[in-house]
């Protein structure tokens, strides 16, 4: 199912849960929305929309009973929110570095202060998710937490550590329990991505081809299958001029899927741009048309993003309003209980006299 349709379904489910004042379902829908936003960036960058959704989900989860909160849905929210905090810290640190080139650093705030604060929050939340998943006892979901640890390591540039975690604590558990499953393909893709950063292109290609094979067989024409084609194309481009025709072929396969499955999307636009760059070497007469397609996608994406931000903002406001009402209800219930106890005590004292 295309990501836009997933968002639409979760938005509708959230509205239904909100109208029924079902706090737990509202939290689960918000966590699902956050996950779709996170996947939109392929777990590579900070997503403000994802973080806002996970934060509101976390707040709602915290006001349901402990027995209802003890669930995979809450563990999932904890782990992904932790990942968002780590990504946020890295982005803010990069922005701060850019600012420090213009302005001298402030003495009353240590360098990297905000990043370390967010990173520690992220690690704490991810560890909470691991502890909960150990308690729940599902080894596959526990491996998913370790996969998030590996993603966090990749985000902070610790690619060797990420590969070790993925190979030792994710891949074997997924493979043994799920077989040739899309999650196995995702782990292989993460391993490949880290090998690419480390300059080990042959290792990266080997893992990408394995990932692509699984995705073609299990998913068919899907966003992730297109991503594997793109990743293979990127690796071939890095290997030089002799591999450009192979890179072009893989980009074209990716674009064919993206136009069918995603339509107007930043990944579709990126494939158009990459194809245009390679066509300059082979078919320069076709470059303007491909650039025009890329530009049209980019413009449409900007308009859609504005609408999506408005919808997300409205839902977060609804969640916050529901949270405040629930807290007020609790306070009123406590006041009633305390008042009842006081009245009972006064009656008892009166009877004793």
Automatic annotation (TrEMBL):
This is Uncharacterized protein. Pfam families: TPR_12 (PF13424). Keywords: Membrane, Repeat, TPR repeat, Transmembrane, Transmembrane helix. Residues 94-111 have a biased composition (Basic and acidic residues). The chain crosses the membrane at residues 330-349. Residues 94-123 are annotated as: Disordered. The keyword Transmembrane helix applies.
């Amino acid at each position: 199912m295309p990501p836009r349709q997933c968002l639409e379904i979760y938005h509708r489910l959230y509205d239904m849960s909100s109208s029924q004042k079902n706090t737990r379902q509202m939290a689960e829908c918000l966590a699902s929305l956050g996950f779709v936003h996170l996947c939109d960036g392929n777990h590579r960058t900070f997503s403000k929309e994802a973080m806002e959704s996970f934060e509101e989900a976390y707040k709602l989860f915290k006001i349901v009973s402990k027995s209802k909160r003890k669930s995979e849905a809450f563990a999932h929210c904890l782990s992904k929110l932790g990942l968002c905090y780590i990504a946020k810290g890295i982005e803010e640190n990069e922005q701060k570095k850019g600012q420090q080139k213009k302005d001298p650093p402030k003495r009353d705030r240590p360098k990297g202060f905000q990043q370390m604060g967010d990173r520690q929050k992220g690690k704490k939340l991810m560890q909470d998710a691991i502890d909960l998943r150990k308690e729940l006892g599902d080894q596959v979901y526990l491996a998913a937490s370790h996969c998030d640890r590996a993603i966090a390591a990749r985000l902070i540039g610790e690619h060797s550590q990420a590969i070790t975690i993925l190979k030792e604590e994710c891949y074997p558990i997924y493979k043994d329990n799920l077989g040739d499953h899309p999650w196995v393909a995702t782990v292989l893709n993460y391993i490949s991505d880290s090998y690419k950063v480390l300059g080990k292109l042959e290792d990266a290609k080997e893992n990408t081809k394995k990932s692509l094979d699984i995705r073609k067989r299990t998913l068919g024409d899907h966003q992730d299958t297109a991503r594997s084609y793109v990743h293979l194309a990127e690796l071939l481009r890095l290997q030089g001029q002799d591999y450009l025709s192979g890179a072009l072929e893989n980009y074209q396969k990716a674009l064919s899927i993206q136009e069918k499955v995603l339509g107007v999307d930043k990944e579709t636009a990126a494939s158009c741009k990459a194809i245009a760059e390679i066509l300059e070497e082979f078919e320069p007469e076709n470059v303007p048309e491909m650039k025009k397609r890329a530009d049209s996608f980019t413009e449409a994406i900007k308009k859609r993003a504005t609408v999506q931000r408005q919808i997300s903002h409205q839902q977060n406001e609804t969640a916050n309003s529901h949270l405040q009402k629930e807290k007020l209800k609790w306070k009123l219930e406590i006041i009633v209980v305390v008042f009842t106890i006081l009245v009972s005590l006064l009656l008892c004292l009166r009877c004793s006299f």
